[in-house]
Design brief:
Blueprint (H helix, E strand, L loop, with lengths): L1 E5 L5 E5 L6 H7 L18 E4 L11 H7 L9 E3 L12 E5 L1
The structure holds FE2/S2 (inorganic) cluster.
Length: 99
C-alpha cells in the first residue's frame, strides 16, 4: 500500500505504508520533512497537511485535532494533522500535501 506526499517544491514522493501507521510516522520513516514537535499528540500543529483525495475515508477529526488546526496557518477545508491520521487499506493512494 502506498501514499503520495506532495512536497513543498511540488515534487511528488510515493512511499509504502503498513496498516496502523500514522501519516506522520510514514513521513518520518521516509525522511519527509514534517515537523512533529509534540511527538504525535496532536497539540503542536507542526504536522499540518492538506489532503487531496479520499477525504471522506479518513475518520473525522477529534475536538483536540480541530482545536489545534484552528491555530495553524494556511488552514483550508482539507487540512488535517498527519499524526492523527491512522492509515488502513482504504487509504491506499492517499495524496498528502505538505503545507
Ligand atoms: S505532531 Fe504535533 S500536532 Fe501532529
Amino acid at each position: 500500500m502506498e501514499i503520495i506526499f506532495i512536497l513543498r517544491n511540488g515534487e511528488e514522493k510515493k512511499v509504502s505504508f503498513k496498516e496502523g501507521q500514522t501519516v506522520l510516522g510514514v513521513a518520518e520513516e521516509n525522511d519527509i520533512n514534517l515537523h512533529g514537535n509534540c511527538e504525535g499528540f496532536g497539540v503542536c500543529g507542526g504536522c499540518h497537511v492538506q489532503i487531496e483525495n479520499l477525504f471522506d475515508k479518513i475518520p473525522e477529526a477529534s475536538s483536540l485535532e480541530e482545536d489545534t488546526l484552528e491555530k495553524v496557518s494556511n488552514l483550508n477545508m482539507n487540512s488535517r494533522l498527519a499524526c492523527q491520521i491512522i492509515l488502513n487499506a482504504s487509504l491506499n493512494g492517499l495524496r498528502v500535501k505538505l503545507v
